Amino acid sequence: MTLAQRTLDPRPAHSAPAARPERGHLRLEGVTKRFAGDVNAVSDVNLDLERGKLLGLLGPSGCGKTTTLRMIAGLLPITSGRILVDDDDISLRPPHQRDFGLVFQNYALFPHMTVAENVAFGLDMRRVPKAEARRRVAEALELVRLPGYGERKPREMSGGQQQRVALARALVINPRILLLDEPLSNLDAKLRDEMRREIREIQQRLGITTVFVTHDQVEALTMCDVVGVMSGGRLAQIGTPEDIYERPASLFVADFVGRTNILDCEVLNGHRVRLGDGVYSCAATTIRPGKAKVAIRPHRINLTPHRDRALLSTSTNSAEGRVLRTTYVGDIVQYDIDIGGPTLQVETPTHGRGLAVAVGDKLLCEWRPDDMLVFER
Amino acid sequence: MAVSETSLPLADAPTATARAKVFPVVPVALLAPMMLVNLIAFILPVAQLVRISFLEGSGGVLTDTTTIGNYVDFLTDAYYLSMIWNSVLLAFVVTVLTLLCAYPIAMFLHTVSPRWRNLLFVMTISPLLVSSVVRTYGWMVLLGDQGLVNNMLVGMGLIASPLRLVNNTLGVVIGLVEILMPYMALSLIAGFGRLDASLSEAAASLGAGRLSRFRRVTLPLTLPGVALGCLLCFVLSISSFITPKLLGGGRVFLLATEIYDQAVIQLEWPLAATISVAVLVLFGFALAVYSNVVRRFD
Ligand SMILES: Nc1ncnc2c1ncn2[C@@H]1O[C@H](COP(=O)(O)OP(=O)(O)OP(=O)(O)O)[C@@H](O)[C@H]1O
Ligand SMILES: [Mg+2]
Asked: Which of A192, A232, B51, B194 could be joined to A187 by an S-S link, Cβ 3.0–4.6 Å?
């Protein structure tokens, strides 16, 4: 029904929650959290998030994403550092005075209230007059495409619907900042994809500064203006999705975001490395000669049949290899290719006929030096 | 898709009804022992009780004459009417006080770190390990004129002469509240188990202060536990007779103590049976109120 509505009707105009681009500049300065037991769950996190931007906090389980988000929300006291919103130090302010919208992984809808009562809760707390509250609740429910669901109880809704109610409840109070903790992790792949789009669209339309915690790198790259990759409580890198993917600052980021070949190598000088039997050009590096690691994205490697050798340009790395294994994934085919020592994983899109490759075939792998990144071991 | 949706239930319907008609052997077999015990230890005695309450008797001798005279006597006697009222009032006061004492304990146990929770939980219910008779004697020692409480208060110069803390209704209330607290705490802790900590946090993020969070989220969600604890305490407090007897010093007259006196001392079994049935009716009311509250919140 929602789907039909969406394709048939043009989206109705919403007057509220109104866009508030003039507020919501979030800054974290050296934010640190140490739990009893001397482990730093979060260490020295610095970030500066412009108004209206969507920040994705990405990282493996236990790296401190939730802890960071809870500190921003005020649900956890910070051990040291400062949190500023619009240059206003809110580090010590209790959560109910921060005016942030929060969406939990488990939605945390009040089970004893109807959907409308849930959404109206924040307005009640702000003593918004009944009539206005009713109107804003209806608008918020429309915003998340659940008009007319107000009288239901949360347990009578599907996971995706509950998730949208939680979003409406957080948005209706017109928060300075929206905080989302893995809001999509309980949804199936298709619904998650749909919700990603919806959240991003609502976020952009309202121009609301948002922090979005996820451990799904596709989510982070596709939705966010800025991605912060966390590792062991630290912010390993923060930048645009393109920065993170194309210019990872560390081996960890290269490995965590997107698929990549990580191989042992030996740096010969600032732009050449030895990999197995071959010597290749790499992206400029300041790492001193000696043992190191290189990262090459599998889909940045081009496969050509052996006989086309003459076509090769000199500025491209090329290595002769033997196919060890092929895996058909659907949109791509993965090949494991032995290039005389290390094994490269290569991905090529499947379009129509493609390369007829069998295990044992000899092929030529080519890649640009810029796609060969060198990192400390 | 539409085809399968409409045809599936139709195809399933005959099997479903057929299954429902089969005699549920396993459930009945599993329930049988309990049903037998209940029949012998509960249903039959209660039936017997009801029968005796309709018999005429005098001086410890039961006759075969059926009468409703026992009920008429009981319900027209101002002494017994005030006794019903006193018992209900006392049970009510005890229940409310027990709730007020136990709720913060349950709330604390819910928020305390899991490391301490188990220990504190065991400590909370550990009084159950000691017989309530022993605990009542303990209270007699503590609350007496020369007891610890009075000696301390007099010794500190707060009062000139000992307070009358025992052999009156106050003593009974103090004793019952302490004795019933573990039951209340257990019910409340069960109620708190359903409370997800993130709900309170969500309320906080929406602007609810401590008090609003308690009033709008914590309390409503723990209400089923509160209702259960109150039902238990109310019923246990009306039916308790050792504590009122010992701490009331023979000056507090309640339904339970009266049943005991009539049945064991006066040997007026028909009257004792009649009062017992009246207590059962009271329990029925309490149960009705309880299920009403629970239904509203579930
Ligand atoms: N209350 C706590 N007491 C002690 N340690 C904690 C507490 N909460 C979290 N931690 C620790 O802090 C670290 C970061 O936890 P956090 O929940 O922030 O991880 P996360 O990145 O959100 O992981 P996930 O993706 O699994 O949700 C973990 O090592 C965790 O064990
Ligand atoms: Mg988390």
From this structure: A192
Q: Identify the helix (H) or strand (E) that includes residue B197.
A: helix B197-205
Please say whether the beta carbons of B157 and B140 come within 8 A. Answer: no
Q: What is the pLDDT of residues B111-161, one digit of tens each?
A: 888 889 999 999 999 999 999 899 999 999 999 888 899 999 999 988 888
Q: Which residue has the tokens 């019933």?
A: B180
Average predicted confidence (pLDDT) for chain A: 87
Assess whether the C-beta atom of A65 lies below 6 angstroms from ligand 1: yes
pLDDT digits over A230-269, tens only?
A: 999 999 999 999 999 999 999 999 999 989 999 999 999 8
Q: Which atom of ligand 1 is nearest to the CA of A33?
A: 12
- Among A299, A358, A293, A295, smallest CA distance to A325 is for A358
Architecture of domain A3-99+175-252: 3-Layer(aba) Sandwich (3.40)
Kindly tell me if the per-residue pLDDT of A10 is higher than 70.
no
Q: Does the ipTM surpass 0.85? A: no
Residue pair A41/A55 in contact (Cβ under 8 Å)? The answer is no
Say which residue, A77 or A3, is predicted with more confidence: A77
Q: Kindly list the residues from chain B whose CB atom is less than 8 angstroms away from the CB atom of residue A121.
A: 203, 206, 208, 216
**A108 to B221: CB separation less than 8 angstroms, yes or no:** no
> Are B96 and B237 a contacting pair, CB within 8 Å?
no
CA nearest to B212 within chain A:
A125
Nearest Cα to A261, choosing from A336, A317, A326? A336
pTM, entire model: 0.80
Break chain A into its structural domains and give their ranges. Answer: 3-99+175-252, 259-375
Assigned CATH for B66-297: 1.10.3720.10
The first and second tokens of residue A319, run together, are 């290595």
| A360-375 per-position pLDDT tens digit | 888 888 899 999 999 9
Query: DSSP string covering A69-91, please?
Result: HHHHHTSS--SEEEEEETTEE-T
Chain-centroid distance, C-alpha A364? 34
**Strand residue runs (E) in chain B:** 55-58, 61-66
Measured distance CA(B126)–CA(A277) in Å, rounded:
74
Q: In this structure, what DSSP letter does residue B215 have?
A: I
CATH architecture of A259-375: Beta Barrel (2.40)
Q: Are A68 and A45 in contact (CB under 8 A)?
A: yes
Task: Determine which residue's CA is closest to atom 11 belonging to ligand 1.
Answer: A41
Q: Report the chain B residue with the minimal C-alpha distance to residue A70.
A: B201
Q: A110: closest CA among B104, B293, B218? A: B218
Rounded Cα gap, residues A224 and A220, in angstroms:
6
CA–CA dist A121, A136 (Å, integer): 12
Please name the residue whose Cα sits nearest to atom 16 of ligand 1. A64
Half-sphere exposure at residue B48, Cβ-oriented, CA atoms within 13 angstroms: 8
Please state whether B59 falls in left (phi above 0), alpha (psi between -120 and 50) or beta.
left
Q: How far is residue A218's CA from residue A216's CA, in Å, rounded to a whole number?
A: 6
Tell me the nearest-neighbour CA distance from A31 into chain B, angstroms. Answer: 20
